């Protein structure tokens, strides 16, 4: 069996060790005689899987007391509505910082539930290439929360600092960089993330919410989306995405075995440096993102001549490099370098890019 180097933005590559363990346990999990897929979510077997996954995540991220971890469904796009339904009713308004397509969509969705202000935006000519400095932000002290996207998957713009919002709770979409490096959870009121980048398969959404922010849901909020109801039921108000939680637990255990989030950051910075260093020295490829905001997770780049895009992708596939096509809204290429991508994969990509440039430059 030959595995490709998968640069897809999500669902993304998973650690091979995790996939092998899941394969070994597929038919019989720890002598239970059944697959995790078949277990009752209220049975003792799955309850132990659920508890271990939650415990490992708390350990890895240093989640302090006073927070609830919820394992939900609906993806980050679902949370674009669920967050305001649970939080915006506290004051009726919220601030959003827009640094790319995902935070722009988040703000648009939230506007259905209250008054939404764009506290800062880095959009210039329809493109996003930076993170607005804190001095540019115009924050409303009466906002129910301030929302930002920690890493923009499409545009490749990432926050490397935690915004200061005073007494107003800070909400972060960390779907594409959660577990990639340490984060100060205590400086956030709520963090949410789809699992399909760094944590596991699609279908699972993790929400980390400060307890004082629970219990303010708007009357229109469906019960299954009410953080208070889900927290009281330990994420079991409805059947949770059991197999996705199981895989996430294996990923958490794997990350811990590698040295935790500090080790992940060193690994991810080393990988990204290989690709960015090559891009900076090339006149054939380009990346327009300001250096201090360049994502470690998603690296968009463009060929000098877009007419060569199809040939580039075809040649990459022939060398076992897949998932490199850029998002349809911006074109070009995009290499996603999530935790499970090896440095060997990035080196193979750069070697191919160098060969392609020599042939077509």
TrEMBL record:
Q: Which spans are transmembrane here?
A: none
Q: Which Pfam families does this chain map to? A: Aminotran_5
Q: Which amino acid positions bind pyridoxal 5'-phosphate, per UniProt?
A: 102, 153, 173, 196, 238-239
Write down how the cofactor binds this protein: Binds 1 pyridoxal phosphate per subunit.
> Single Gene Ontology BP term?
L-serine biosynthetic process
MF GO annotations: O-phospho-L-serine:2-oxoglutarate aminotransferase activity; pyridoxal phosphate binding
Functional pathway: Amino-acid biosynthesis; L-serine biosynthesis; L-serine from 3-phospho-D-glycerate: step 2/3; Cofactor biosynthesis; pyridoxine 5'-phosphate biosynthesis; pyridoxine 5'-phosphate from D-erythrose 4-phosphate: step 3/5
Q: How does it assemble?
A: Homodimer.
Family, similarity comment: Belongs to the class-V pyridoxal-phosphate-dependent aminotransferase family. SerC subfamily.
Protein name as it appears in the record: Phosphoserine aminotransferase
The organism encoding this protein is Ramlibacter rhizophilus
* Gene name of this polypeptide: serC
């Amino acid at each position: 069996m030959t595995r490709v180097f998968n640069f897809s933005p999500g669902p993304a590559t998973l650690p091979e060790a995790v996939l092998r363990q899941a394969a070994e346990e597929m038919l019989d999990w720890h002598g239970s005689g059944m697959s995790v897929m078949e277990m009752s979510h209220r049975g003792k077997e799955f309850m132990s899987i659920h508890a271990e996954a939650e415990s490992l995540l708390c350990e890895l991220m240093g989640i302090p007391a006073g927070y609830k971890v919820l394992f939900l469904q609906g993806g980050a796009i679902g949370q674009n509505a669920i967050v305001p339904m649970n939080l915006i009713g506290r004051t009726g308004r919220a601030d959003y910082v827009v640094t790319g397509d995902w935070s722009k969509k988040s703000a648009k969705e939230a506007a259905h539930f209250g008054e939404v202000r764009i506290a800062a935006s880095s959009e210039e000519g329809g493109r996003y290439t930076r993170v607005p400095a804190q001095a540019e932000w115009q924050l409303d002290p009466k906002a129910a929360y301030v929302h930002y996207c920690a890493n923009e998957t499409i545009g490749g713009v990432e926050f490397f600092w935690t915004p200061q919002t005073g007494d107003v709770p800070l909400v972060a979409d960390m779907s594409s960089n959660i577990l990639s490096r340490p984060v100060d959870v205590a400086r956030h009121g709520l963090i949410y993330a789809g699992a399909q980048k760094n944590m596991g398969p699609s279908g699972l959404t993790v929400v980390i919410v400060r307890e004082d922010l629970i219990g303010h849901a708007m009357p229109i909020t469906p019960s299954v989306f009410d953080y208070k109801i889900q927290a009281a039921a330990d994420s079991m108000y409805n059947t949770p995405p059991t197999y996705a939680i199981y895989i996430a637990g294996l990923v958490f255990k794997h990350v811990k075995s590698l040295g935790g989030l500090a080790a992940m950051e060193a690994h991810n910075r080393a990988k990204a440096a290989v690709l960015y260093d090559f891009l900076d020295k090339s006149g054939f490829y380009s990346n327009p993102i300001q250096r201090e905001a360049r994502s470690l997770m998603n690296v968009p780049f463009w060929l000098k001549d877009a007419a060569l895009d199809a040939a580039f992708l075809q040649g990459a596939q022939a060398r076992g490099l897949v998932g490199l096509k850029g998002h349809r809204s911006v074109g070009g290429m995009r290499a996603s370098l999530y935790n499970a991508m090896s440095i060997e994969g990035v080196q193979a990509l750069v070697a191919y890019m160098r060969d392609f440039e020599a042939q077509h430059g």
